[in-house]
Every structure is written in structure tokens, then in C-alpha cells.
Amino acid sequence: MIDLERRPPIVFVEPRTSLIRLARVDESLGLHLRVAARFAAMARRFAAEVRVRLDGAEADGKSVLDLMCLGAACGAVLELEARGEDAEAALAALSAQLVAPPAEADGRPTD
Q: Which of 32, 38, 53, 83 is catalytic?
């Protein structure tokens, strides 16, 4: 009998398991070149395949040009999909990339 109080950790049997997370673009200028480049660079650190969707359009999360073509404005909610062994770690790191950095971090003047 399985003890439901002591559940084993989740194990991915299929290495191509796909996970999806929604993430909001917090950057005031949207998914512009600097943010897209930072996102794609982070995505390339993972073995997982990364796809990004917005309003029916889909982009390769490891391609700066693809990400720019989405035209995601500030406040846009992106669907991030990662498929592969490190999909969960990839989604956690990539959703954090969409949070606007402090103004001082990227050289913008503060008020």
C-alpha cells in the first residue's frame, strides 16, 4: 500500500517531459534587445528545449531574433515551455530573467 503522507519526490521518467510556466514581462520597455539577449543567453545554458509563446506566436527561447519578433510589451504574459531533463530549472531561471532589474543595474537613470 502507498503511504500518501510520505510521497516520493517527482521523478521524470520521460526525459522529454514538457513543463509550462506563465511569466509576465516586467521590463518597462518590454522584451527589447537587452532583455531578449539576456533571456536567450540564460536559455542556452540549459540542455532543455525552450519555447516562448505570446498571442499565438511562438519563438525559440534560445534565439534573440525569435524573441524580439514576439513584440512583447511591458505587462505581456508569456507562456514559457521547457522540454528536457533540466526543464524545471530552466523555467525557474528564465522566468526570473523577465523581472525588471533595478534601474542602476542596467545604466538607466533613477528618479
A: 32
How confident is the prediction along the chain (111 residues), in pLDDT tens digits per residue?
344 455 444 344 455 578 999 999 999 999 999 999 999 999 999 999 999 999 999 999 999 999 999 999 999 999 999 999 899 999 999 999 888 565 544 555 444
User: What residues contact residue 54 under an 8 Å CB cut-off, 6+ apart?
Assistant: 70, 71, 72, 76, 77, 78, 79
Q: Please indicate whether residue 98 is annotated as part of the active site.
A: no
SS3 state of residue 93: helix
Nearest to 23 by CA among 84, 67, 86: 67
Report yes or no on whether pTM surpasses 0.85.
no
Q: How far out from the chain centre does Cα 16 lie?
A: 17
Edge-to-edge, what's the strand order for the sheet holding 49-54?
A: 18-24, 77-83, 49-54, 57-60
> DSSP class of residue 26?
-
Q: Say whether domain 18-99 belongs to CATH 3.30.1340.10.
A: yes
